[in-house]
Amino acid sequence: MKPGSTSAACVALLRRDLLLVWRRRGDALNPLLFAIIVVALFPFALGPEAAVLSRIAAGTIFVAVLLAMLLSLDALFRSDLEDGSLEQLVLSPHPLALLLGCKILVHWLTTALPLIVIAPLLAQLLLLPAAVLPVLLTALALATPLLSLIGAVCVALTVGMRRSGMLLTLLVLPLIVPALIFGAGACNAAQNGFAYSAPLLWLAAWLVLAVILAPLAAAAALKISLT
Amino acid sequence: MNPLVLWFHKLGSPPYFYRFAGKWLPWLYALALIAGVVGFYGALFTAPADYQQGDSFRIMYVHVPCAWMGLFAYLFMAANGFVGLVWRIKLSETLAMASAPVGAAFTFITLVTGSLWGKPTWGTWWTWDARLTSELVLLFLYFGVIGLYHAIEDRRQAARAAAFLALIGIVNLPIVHYSVIWWNTLHQAQTVSLVGPSKIAPSMLWPLLVLAFATHAYFFASVLARSRVALLELESGKDWVRALLHAAETLHD
Amino acid sequence: MTDFFAMHGYAAYVWPSYALFAVVLLADALAPVFARRRALRDIAARLRRAASRKPS
Asked: Do chains A and C touch (3 or more CB pairs under 8 A)?
């Protein structure tokens, strides 16, 4: 790989961000803990009756994963903004959208992937029928990157704000509602014996669109926020 | 140069717009008030009660114009936001941000009056069908735009960021609408479809149109009023604002 | 007349709707009035402060 080329820049950025997360891997476990706690609270709130829990299991897991990802989304650009490397990224000759894509990839790998790994545990806590689990995992695998991508655009708009947590949630949630509807909808359809491929295909289509457009939008938003 | 084009360019100048808006404001408010009174007279007195819903359908005369304005305001905001982002026209940014709270107010009225209408006619205060859900998401989008605008210090940067969000939201709104339709048809537990006059009688229709006109006039009045204040704050260091203050002070002496 | 006010039984729904419409839009109409006064006051105060700081 030629040093100074765009691919070298992307690889360097990926390595750096992954290394930074690894150095604070305790913090990276926070979203996991949050998701487990949220899911565990529901049996306490709704009672241990199996029929009730398995009915709400898929949707609850989806919401818990969503909220857990929102927690870590805030930190996407924060440390880079504080030490000035965010401005260096914006000023670099490489396409900003591509670089942001790499950062979003790291966010998904370090936040969403662990959540997908523990999804079977969450499913068991809420007594999700075993047959639905593959659909849940597929739906999560499609919806979580969407959340990372759309969330990144919103974080780019609020970068630098001191107390942006609640505002960020307010911005992201209306935009993520379709992904939630289709993701949880696929699981519920599978659970009730209906066809579930349509919502999954919709999710996949949006994901493809988001992979191309969201980094561009995030780059534009970042340029607005940093001027 | 074409006088209309010239006038359009002049309008972009803050002091000219300030004077222009100040001149037209009272007329727009008056127009809204008169049309509103006429419309409400028709809504409450001359329109006959609906054979199915009785007098509760009169809520329509508040609910529907506000629903139309909530959507119109968002389009107005997004269009001005787009112009502001692409051509960096200060006035467009101002108009976009001024229309956000007005649109949010109309959307809020829509949701609450809809709920009040739904209770006697559908038997429930709320239901998660496509239109209601999309309207709720619209309110959240307004809150997001307003929140973002107020969270950033630099006013022009704040307006651009909020306008960007408004444009993303405008793409999202039909997506939410169609997602919820799919979601509703999946569940297939719908009992009642949305009520509404299918073939509306003329005596029922004209108050609605008059009130639609009234709310439009009110919207523009409110946007102009809010834009004037925003321009004052934005241009506070400029000479024209200083001159305005001196004129106001000499008037009070 | 009482029939009209009772809206044939729907009064609890119709009148609050109309009232909400009036109240919210009134609040929306008054907000720029107060904001404009406040803005002019603040700008005048800022100008006075700036003038007192620069005696020339």
From this structure: no
